[in-house]
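input
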Amino acid sequence: MPASFRQAVASSHFPGIVVYRPLNFPCIEGADLTFLEQLSDRLYGDFGPFNPDQMSVATAILAGSSQLAFDPEGRVMLPAEMRAAAGVDTHATFVGLGRKFQIWGADAYQAHLKDQLEHAAEAAPKLPPFGGGGQA
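output
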């Protein structure tokens, strides 16, 4: 894990990260434990504990997640099944996304980045202004 990310999660009550397989991309996604706790709270708060949509997302993300503690050098061992599903073998690309991150197979990330840049060029003008204010 990059030192800057380890430092950002150092104040967390769990000395490590939580990783899971996202629903929409062939990569590994992760964050600190607080992020996943907030996701869980939101799922149960927005949907209720017996809603089938909530149960599907909770099963896919929460039940499939793994807590990984940092070793003394700040490393973690990614679960083999997640590495295989994401196509991560000897080289990986770490992508910081604010409060979470993604880990990609190097070649797959280059294709993903190209797609995301094209999508962002179309989507960005449609987003509300930063700060939620009106247009100036």
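quick obs: The helical segments are 3-8, 33-47, 52-62, 80-86, 106-123.
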